[in-house]
Amino acid sequence: MNRTRIAQLAPGIALCAVLSALAVGLQMLEEHWTGKPYLEALVIAILLGTVLRTAWTPGEHFAHGIGFSARTLLEVAVMLLGASISFQAVMQAGPALLVGIAAVVAVAICASYGLCRFVGLPKRMAVLVACGNSICGNSAIAAVAPVIGAKPEDIASSIAFTAILGVIVVLGLPLLVPMLGLSEIQYGVLAGLTVYAVPQVLAATLPVGLVSTQIGTLVKLVRVLMLGPVVLGLSLAVGRSSRGLSLSRLVPWFIVGFLLLAALRSAGLIPDMILGAILPIATALTIISMAALGLGVDLKVLARVGGRVTLAVTLSLIVLIAISLGLIRLLGLA
Asked: What is the 3-state secondary structure (H, E, C) of 268-321?
């Protein structure tokens, strides 16, 4: 990258980085005041970017860096997330539960997509909401977005409403334990299948018991692993329908990198010291890219689709909970 290109990108990247640092600071204050990060820095960053974009339109010299942050930095972050996946942890869950989790994800994606289209959401946004709801919330939306060519406002809408509902799930899901008479194992599986982020799984299960936390975390990690095949499948589908048969277009470089890092982690070839550096970098890049996406959002567009997105996400979550409870009963988990 030459100096001219760096000079073009620097102002926009710096703006996104400042918003990201502010978002991290606000999350730290939130944790200090409430004890839990109900809104993660990733969500705060996109909200800050959106607010700033509403009050002020960045000049042309910011555009290149903002676009680079929203696309390339996001793709790098998704690739690095592969280092957090270990196939060995997946095998400990047992074949029946593994197949069940994969089936829940597949059915939930199809059902959520159908509901989104039924309430009138565009195809790309429907895919974002379906994948975010069915796999891992914001991370899934961020991973799927560049593959399907989603618009910034679609990404922002999906993340914003999924994040809000994610907080509601963390607070309300434990109420199902006495209502449905769930054991700690049953509730752990339910939380792992329905809560969006791993930290949120911890927040939703710790009040119930350590067994729920352990089971919920394991199930959640298996569910996150479904992101690779889903993104790869979407990449192949999009490539065949609209991008020709070029291998680089059918399988984006960052998806190859994601799977490669997951394989290296599973083989024990990524030392803990390096892993400890990779994951914070991936998190930081994701937050920066979310700030960039926020800076590309027109709140008037967000307002037009808000009601439909809220309805779609809510209905999708209800369906996901119902499917998850069905799996628990089917497997006879006690």
From this structure: CCCCHHHHHHHHHHHHHHHHHHHHHHHHCCCHHHHHHHHHHHHHHHHHHHHHHH
State yes or no: pLDDT of 48 exceeds 60: yes
Alpha helices in 119-151 (DSSP H): 123-131, 138-148
Q: Are 227 and 140 in contact (CB under 8 A)?
A: yes
For 185, other C-beta atoms within 10 Å of its C-beta total: 17
Residue with tokens 């409403």: 161
pLDDT in tens, 241-268: 444 434 554 456 877 887 788 889 888 8
8 A C-beta contact, residue 190 and residue 211: no
Distance separating alpha carbons of residues 162 and 146, to the nearest angstrom: 18
Which tokens hold the place of 122?
A: 């565009």
Domain assignments of the chain as residue spans, ordered by start: 3-331
Residues 6+ apart with CB under 8 A from 184: 208, 209, 211, 212, 215
- The reported pTM is 0.67
Name which of 170-184, 255-269, 277-291 the model is least confident about: 255-269
Distances (CA, A) of 250 to 91, 241, 277, 313: 29, 10, 30, 29
Residue 228 in contact with residue 255, Cβ under 8 Å? yes
The candidate with the shortest Cα–Cα distance to 291, out of 38, 61, 77, is: 77
Tokens 């990247």 found at: 13
